């Protein structure tokens, strides 16, 4: 099973960025955590982070025929990007949405998720652990 894990804008600033919301661990720690979670599940993974909406769209498109599923934290683009929603729908790979924070307990604008409309499941508010939950869910969902 090959999983593409996509992290969106500003997640590269984890540890520095609003640590009361996103925690004190940095992005390198998150990437190590995700790699370990995938290894524990017996999944191959590629990690991708970008601050650019179009680059994320390109990456999703390139997953077609290469990956079995996608784990995505689109960060702020969650709440704005029809382009990312359409890309996920276009490739039609099983996708799971992750948010470190509990977006539904925050500002009203964070309650809308466009990307989530193309995802089979969302994990929000579980910190790093949410990525592990997403990888495990995807493994069971795909049956690999
Ligand atoms: C986030 C939540 C988003 O609302 C926010 O814009 C982010 C991070 C999260 O992981 O909790 O950048 O996706």
Structure in words:
The chain has 144 residues and is α/β, with parallel strands linked by helices. It has one domain: Rossmann fold (3-Layer(aba) Sandwich), CATH 3.40.50. The chain has 5 helices and 5 strands. The protein has helices at residues 19-22, 27-41, 53-62, 82-91, 129-142, and strands spanning 2-7, 44-49, 69-73, 95-99, 121-124. Strands 2-1-3-4-5 form a 5-stranded parallel β-sheet, sandwiched between helices. Helix 2 (27-41) runs parallel beside helix 5 and helix 3 (53-62) packs parallel to helix 4 (82-91). The protein is globular. The site of 1,3,4-trihydroxy-5-OXO-cyclohexanecarboxylic acid has 10 residues, from loops.
CATH architecture designation = 3-Layer(aba) Sandwich
CATH classification class: Alpha Beta
Strand % is 15-25%
Helix content range: 25-40%
Radius of gyration: 14 Å
- Low confidence ranges: none
| Strand order of the biggest β-sheet | 2-1-3-4-5
Overall number of strands: 5
Number of domains: 1
The major sheet is characterized as:
5 strands, parallel
Q: How do the helices and strands follow one another from N- to C-terminus?
A: EHHEHEHEEH
- Broad shape: globular
SSE blueprint:
Layout: E1 2-7, H1 19-22, H2 27-41, E2 44-49, H3 53-62, E3 69-73, H4 82-91, E4 95-99, E5 121-124, H5 129-142
Parallel strand pairs: 1-2, 1-3, 3-4, 4-5
1,3,4-trihydroxy-5-OXO-cyclohexanecarboxylic acid binds at residues 10, 73, 75-76, 78, 99-101, 103, 110.
């Amino acid at each position: 099973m090959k999983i593409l894990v996509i992290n969106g804008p500003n997640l590269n600033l984890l540890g520095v960025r609003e640590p009361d919301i996103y925690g004190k661990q940095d992005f390198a720690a998150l990437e190590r955590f995700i790699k370990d979670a995938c290894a524990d599940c017996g999944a191959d993974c590629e990690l991708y982070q970008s601050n650019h909406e179009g680059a994320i769209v390109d990456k999703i498109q390139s997953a077609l025929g290469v990956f079995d599923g996608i784990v995505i934290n689109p960060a702020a683009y969650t709440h704005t990007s029809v382009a990312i929603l359409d890309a996920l729908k276009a490739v039609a790979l099983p996708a799971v949405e992750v948010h470190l924070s509990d977006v539904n307990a925050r500002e009203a604008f964070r309650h809308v998720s466009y990307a989530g409309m193309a995802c089979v499941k969302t994990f929000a508010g579980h910190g790093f652990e949410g990525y592990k939950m997403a990888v495990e869910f995807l493994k069971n969902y795909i049956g690999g």
